[in-house]
Amino acid sequence: MKRGSVSAIVNLVEPWAALEPLTTQRPVGTLPFGGRYRLLDFPLSSATNAGIQNVMVAAPRSGRSVMDHLRSGRDWNLDSIRGGLFMYPYNDLQLVSVEKKATLLHHYYDNAMLFLKRSQSEYTVVMGTRNVSNIDLRALTRYHEERDNPITTVYKSIDPNTLAPDHTILQLTAKGMATAVVPADKAKLKKTAKTVAKNLGIYLLSTVDLIDILQEANRRGVLISLEELMMQAVMQQNANAFEYTGFYANIHDVSSYYAANMAILDETNFRALFYSSRQIYTKVKNEVPTFFAQGSQFRASLCGTGGYIEGQVEHSVIFRNVLINRDSQIKDAVIMQGTRIGAGTQIENAVIDKNVVIGPNLVLKGQPNQPLVIRKGAHIFKQTEVVASD
Amino acid sequence: MTDEMLGIILAGGQGTRLGKLTKDTAKPAVPFGGRYRIIDFTLSNCANSGVNTVGVITQYQPLELNAHIGNGASWGLDDSSGGVTVLQPYSSTEGEKFFEGTAHAIYQNIEYIDQHHPKYLLVLSGDHIYKMDYAAMLAYHKAKKAALTVGVIPVTKEEAKRFGMMNTDETDRIIEFEEKPVHPKSDKASMGIYIFNWPTLRDYLVKSYATDKSLEDFGKNVIPAYLTHNESVYAYAFEGYWRDVGTIQSLWQANMEFLSPHNRLNIGDQHWRIYSKAQVLPPMFLTATSQVNDAMIVDSCYVAGEINHSILSQRVSVGMGSRIVDSMIMSGATIGKNVVIDHALVGEDAIIGDDATVKGTTADIAVVGYHETVGVQQP
C-alpha cells in the first residue's frame, strides 16, 4: 500500500450517556484505558501502523481533552509535511442550538468533504473509538481491493449471549457479504447460532464514494450522524465483511468499560493487544519510575510510571502518577492518573477517575457487574460521601 | 540568532573504567535509574536553565548516543533557532577533526560555536548525575566579571586525591590549580563545569593551535594558562547532590542511592524535571507471583519473580522464582526462572538463563555486558 493512498476519519461523536460520570467532561474517545492509553489511541495507532498520513478527528464538543492528548499528532507520526492530523470540533448535534442547526442544514459535512478532497487518497476508513481493537488496516484495504462491493465492514464473531441491546450486528449472506447492520435487540438470531457477527464500526470505501454520500446528506438537508450514514450505506449497497480475530472489547456503559479494563489483566489479552507487531501509540509523557515501597504488595496488575505504591494492590489497572498509601487494599479496581489513595483505605470493584483524592480508612466497594465510580477530581474524606451501590 | 550562552557537552570519552558497559557505547549513553541515560541529567539541566542551544561533542562509539538524542525534542531542545546538535569529528582541508583533550575538542568545533556568536561558553561533561541551574552560575560569572568560572564541589581530603583541586582566596578567586594533589590544600574539587567568556577562550585556543598546540586539556593546560596570564578565574560552589559515575562501583552506588525516596537528587521534583528519550511502551505487568519491595520499575517490564532493593529498566522481564537483590537491570534484559541476581549491573538486552546466578558483593559488583548471555546452553 502506497503511503497516502488511504485516509482516516476517527469519529468521536459516540453515545456517552451510559458512561456518565466518566464522560461528563470528555468524549468516549478520550476515556483512559489500560494504564496509560485513551480509547482513540487504538484507531489512531491502527492508522499509523498502516502508513495512513491523513487523519481527521471529529470531536463532539470543544475537543479540549482531545487536543490536549493529540497535540500536533507527533506521537502517532501524524505531524508529517505530507498529510497530518486535522481536528474538527463541535460535531455533536444534540448540543447545537436550533438557530445554528438551521445554518448547518446543508453544510454539516462541508469540513469532512474538504478534508477528503485535499487528502487525495484513494480510500477512506471511518472508525469510532468504543470498540477497542488492534486491527491491520493494510489487510483490510487488500481485502477491499480484492472484492467487488463498494464498501467493506468489519466484524468480530462473538457469543450471542454477550451481546448488549445497543450493539449492532452484521447480517451476513452465505458468501460472507454484509447486507445490513441491525441493532442487536431487533436482530432475528437463530437459536442454534453459536456466534454472531458483531459490527466493529469500521468502514472502508473509496474516498470519491464517501464524498458522494456526504454531499447527498448535505443536499437532503437532514442532519444525520456519520455513523448512521455508514450503516445506511451498507444497507443500500451491500458490503464486504472482514472478520477481525484479535482482542476486542466493546465499551458502551460503565460496566463494560470496567470489564474491558479487567479483561486486559488477563495475560493473553494483554499480549494480544499490546505486543503484536502493531504497536499502540499514545501521548508521550515524562514520568519517573514507579516506586514500590518496602511492605507493598502489587500483584496481577498493570501500572503506569510515576507511581508511588505503599499499599496492597491486586488485579487492578493503575494508571500513571498514582499514589497508594500504606495499609490500603486495592482489589479489582481501575485507578486513573494522578489519583491519591489514603492509608488504610479499602477499594474493591471500583473505577476511580483522574486526580481524585480518597482520604484514609475508608471503604469503597462496588459490585463486580456494577462498579462504584468516583468522578474526576473528587475529594472524599468521609465514609458518608460514598454512596453504596447496592 | 545570537545565544548569550552556548552549551557544549563533552561526550566523547570512552569511560574505560566502566569496563564491559562501555565496550560498544559512550559513557554518557550508559543507562541510569531505570529510564535514563547519564547524559539526560546534563541535557535536562541545560533545558531547565534556559540554555537552548547545545552542542554534544562525540567521538567514541557515538551511535547509541546519536539515536538517544535524536533531534532533541525529548528535552524540548528542538527549537527552530538552535536546539541540540550532535557534533561528530569530520575531515576537512585542515585534516581530520578528531580531538585529543577537552580543550582541543572545543578548538575542533570552533566553527559550530561561531555560528551562534555566543558571549559565554558553558562547557559540561556528560557523565555526572546532578541537578544544577547554569543560569545562576552565569549570573555569578557576570557579577564576578570573570573570564572563567569553574564549578566546584566540596570533597573530603581522601577524595581530593582523585580530583583537580582549586585553591581560592577569600573572594573565591582561584589562585592555584592542583591536579590530583597528594596533600590537598582545599576541599574544592572541579566538577568539569566551566563558563568561559567565549572571545577570550577563542583567542587562547587559536593562538595555541597556531603555535605550540599546548592547550589540549582544560584542567591540565587551560586553567594553568589563564592563571599564569592573570585572568580572573572564579570558583562557583555547588552544594547539591552530585555524583561522578565513572566506575562500576560508583555507578552501582549512585543507582542504589537513586532508589531511596529520600535521595537528595529529588527526581520527582516537577519544577526541575529530568527528561529522557520518550518511548511509548505498554504499562508494566506484575503477575500474581510477583513480590516487589523497595524497587523502581518502569514501562513494559514483566515481573513474575521477587525484586528487592533494585531497579528494573524498560522491557525487562523477570521469570517466576527469580530473585533480584541490590541490582540495576538495564533495558531489554531477559531474566529466566529461578535466577539469583545479587549486587549486579546487568547490561541492555542481556539474557540470563534459568537457574543461573549472578552474584557480586558491595566491594565487587558483578557486571553482565550488553547482549551477554549467562547460563544458557548454546545450541
TrEMBL record, chain A:
Q: Where is the Glucose-1-phosphate adenylyltransferase/Bifunctional protein GlmU-like C-terminal hexapeptide domain?
A: 297-363
> Tell me, what is one Gene Ontology molecular-function annotation carried by this entry?
glucose-1-phosphate adenylyltransferase activity
Keywords in alphabetical order: Glycogen biosynthesis, Nucleotidyltransferase, Transferase
- What's one Pfam family here? Hexapep_GlmU
Quick check: keyword Transcription in the entry?
no
Q: Which family is annotated?
A: Belongs to the bacterial/plant glucose-1-phosphate adenylyltransferase family.
Q: What is the protein's name according to its record? A: Glucose-1-phosphate adenylyltransferase, subunit [Lactobacillus plantarum JDM1]
